[in-house]
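S1.2 Input.
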Amino acid sequence: IKLNQSFRRSRELQQDLLAQSLIPCDAPTNLIARKVVGDGNCLFNAISLSLVGTTEYFTVLRILTAIELFEKCTLL
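S1.3 Output.
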């Protein structure tokens, strides 16, 4: 995946105007709140969107998180 293409696609996602209004005025001015699907994967969708500009990597992030949690749990 090419990052420039991904970030162009992220601009196509609908802006969340309510969330945008909640960004503090002293935050960087280049922040834009985007809507992600609220299907139980919204955290991973948002992280994927932030990292690469698209939500298509949410499954990979979710699996990597599960593996990390499982590995840490077995150490106890």
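S1.4 Remarks. The helical segments are 3-12, 17-21, 42-52, 58-73.
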